[in-house]
Amino acid sequence: MTDTQRASLILGITGGVAAYKAAELARLWVKAGYAVQAVMTKAATHFVGPATLQALTGRPVLTDLWEASGNGMDHINVSRNADLIVVAPASADFMAKLAQGRADDLLSTLCLARACPLLLAPAMNREMWANPTTQRNLAQLIEDDIRIIGPESGEQACGETGLGRMSEPQTIFEAVEAFLNSGPLAGKNVVITAGPTYEPIDPVRGITNLSSGKMGYALATAAREAGAKVTLVSGPTALAAPAGVTRHNVTTANEMFDAVMSRVAEADVFIAVAAVADYRPAETGPQKIKKSEQPLTLNLLPNKDILASIAALPNAPFCVGFAAETENLLEHAESKRQKKKLPMLVANLAQDTLGSNQAELVVLDNAGSHALPRADKQSQARLLIKHLVQLLDKPST
To answer: Whole-model pTM?
Structure first.
């Protein structure tokens, strides 16, 4: 679709505290010129009133399969007139219904009878999201070509903190606009590395670092939202794979190098976010090294430079590097960018960023430096993808 101002959207709302955000989402769409039809489950009406959605959309809200208007075929007719269905929030129960093909209310029925794409913005308790059943349902929905927006990590209404918080209305709004316009990275293959590597010294000890992987995972989410096919090569982290992203788990720097090299031939963009160990032990002990009073000397060998190796390929993808420094940030980062001949490099002070949910970044490219004030990493990731797209669109010199 090229004219989003004429798009007709169905806003599905299921039961959950995040249902209040649907009102703001409806307001954003109407302000942008979209025609919005709200459809609520019975549970959703306990959290936000249909009158609110009707006032915002200018249309009666549909809630009951058995009180449909016209010829009683709203579950068919409504979806036939829509360009897109967005369910926000999408509860764990509703995701299960869709994965199993069940239709016991108006919203699930029109989703099953739809003739248009379907996007879900999940919202639930972090334990519900992490539950294997929910993750199996999620995998099935993605296989069925249903797009997933979020969820994100943060404080939840239950008082806990973790993954499962519904994406903010502005984020969903932007994702829908990108979807209706195919997304700025549609048709692009993006390979991203994330997290630390772990270099074993013996079966119980190793060399690693404080990287949490959050920035790389956030970039994978942002690139997927922009329409790209994303492969995430990840070192050891405690993070769940972003929805719609293919994750390949590795441990050591050499494993990460091999995984990237086997996938980069099809990549249009390579983003090296992982904090790869610069060195590895020359020998790995087969058994635990016993403590003694004598000094222990480790012989370390340099690991391969993954980013430099990719950037030096004859038909290299567009390469983005990351530089975590502890001092002289701009000087060291620009030196790294020039040495590896990178069109884009993202720099930060390691002590302010590693393990944190927020980041203060500086983007370096051929035009100079561009500061991104401190913000959460998912917001920063979306800004970085936007900057990347702008550089991709520039003619090469």
So the answer is: 0.66
